[in-house]
Amino acid sequence: MASSDKDAVLVEVIDNVEDFPESFRCISEAFGRQTHDAIWIGFNPGWDTPEGQAAGVERMIRRWKSTTTDNKGNPNAVYLKATLADPDQPERRIIVGVAIWVQVSSVEGYGATNEGELSEGAAEALHPGLESEQRFIQQMFRSLLKDRVKYTASKAADNPPAVMCLDLCATHPDFQRRGVASRLVQWGLDEARRRGIPNATTEASTMGRHVYQRLGFLPQGSDTVYEIDDEFSNRDLPPNLFMVYSRDAK
């Protein structure tokens, strides 16, 4: 998969733990520093501290290691890295984008389960002793994924009864507008085709929507309405739009 063009974006599957610290830093710059995404920050408290970075990396590694497979042996989650030549050291490549694609299904054996709920234990682990923050992240997570859960359930009678979901896509701010996100998204669409899965979804930020639409995703309704307690109403909530790619519709 190597490219002789040092300016080319190279997309590869992450297959070793050594890539996760750099991957998490890349995601942090996009969702933490650039967009201040409340959901991502809620899942990664202290992201802007050395301790928070280490904890975030460890969570990513645990999730990566816990990846299951479908009944054909395909991994139900694929972690991707996009690299470019380092401007300061052109002989080495640096991670400038990260994506996580997940195969989900409401039918056993055809993908990861798609419940759209964050357990009380997981919320407590993220925000020990902070009941309010635990409720906030649980409610935000449930609201964000409700359309994905509903859409996946609607495909239970399809063959296969599976959906590919772009769970995360981040490009380092210093390397945006260079086709990084497009390559990461296209990789997942190509993989869905290889697996015989015609439908893909994502929860699109304002910044990412134009990329997804250009590649064939269509908006489903309007922006996500977050069903949260009144005490959180003054918080800055990230705009997200549920979008669907359907090969059958093209």
Automatic annotation (TrEMBL):
GO molecular function: acyltransferase activity, transferring groups other than amino-acyl groups
Pfam families: Acetyltransf_1
Transmembrane segments: none
SUPFAM superfamilies: Acyl-CoA N-acyltransferases (Nat)
Limits of the N-acetyltransferase domain: 94-248
Protein name: N-acetyltransferase domain-containing protein
Annotated source species: Xylaria grammica
